[in-house]
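I am still getting used to backbone structure tokens and would like to learn alongside you. To get us started, please write out a protein record for me. Once you have written the record down, we can walk along the chain together.
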Amino acid sequence: MKKLLVGTAAIALGFAFSAPAQAADGIKLGVGGHFKGYVTWLDQDENTNLDADAEIEDVRDFDILRETEIHMSGETTLDNGLTVGFHLEAEADGTSGGAGDTFDIEESYAYFSGAWGRVNFGAEDGAAFLLQVAAPSADTEIDGVRQQVQPVTFARTSVGALAPAAGGLAANFRFDYDNAIARSDNKLTYMTPVFNGFQFGASYTPDLGSGVNTFAGINSDDTEGDFGEVWEVAGRFEGTLGEVGVALGAGYADITLEDEVVGADTDDRAVWNAGIDLNWGAFGLGAAYLDDDHGRDLSADETVWVVGADYTTGPFKIGASYYDNEQELDAHRQAANSGDMETDRWMAGVTYTYGPGMTFRGSVGYVETEMPRALIAAPGDNETDATFVMLGTVINF
């Protein structure tokens, strides 16, 4: 499949470049991005983190959550029809508000497109995410396919309880259900044109978690316990059945274990997803599913179900969603960890569009999480119950 993907990209690009072509102007970058800010009220039963004096910390009732990104992008179309573009996204808020903040680059890639489809080259999400169908939500920043704002404070855990190569339970502290294991690692992605509502895509990532490579050398291979190549395939359909708008999608990602650790139960990792979104007039209803085996021979399967509905009237959108996450533990660890990790979340909210790319958002939610006691670093209950109310604005520029 590697030869197929790389060959397809090479043929497409070779055809586009077979005759030199000029554009009236080269690529000129424009600046965009977004500001997301929320005021949050939280009622949480307890936080099992310890402070410097080994005492259980309280959870703040009121706080402000904020994120800002700067985007730079531009494209041009040559006389032969080839479109060449570039896109960059950077976290303007840095790491955590401290002295060590940096202008973190999140995505940086070039793309080439034409009647034959599109090729992305660089640090960008893969086909399984780009074609994923999400369920309707109360607020896409909180209960969307990729959670951007997390209002609940979770317990400190011994993240090493599951090997980092196997994913680890830390991933559950953001309630994502995006099929994006390789996220913004360097990759090649090919997306077909849309044919009668259908579109397909495939991605290849040479090395999972490699970050951004410059010209300093190539990553190592056959490292014990490390995941390497990532293959992704996905498909999506958007159309209508009578008066009902339909979106269907599914994706699969396979991650190769470079070299198994002797005595460990690690294996190649597989993640797959499916989703459906139905729209009839002002009403929307949908569901999404994700399954991740976390690269374990024994039981460590994580499953996510999301169901959502929304109603749009003028500038207002009212939505609600239910999220269910269950992660099994390896059979040889269950006794020590006292069961699996389970999370339920219910949300309802409203979004008001007050200008182009500008929205006010308000939502209320309830989260219930039970995690294995052996993963709790501090004494106390291994269950977290939290109710939150969030008011905020998202401004795209």
Notes: Confidence is low (pLDDT under 50) at residues 48-56, 96-100, 156-172. The chain has one domain: 2-19+36-396. The domain at 2-19+36-396 is CATH 2.40.160.10 (Porin). The CA atoms of residues 19 and 349 lie 54 Å apart.
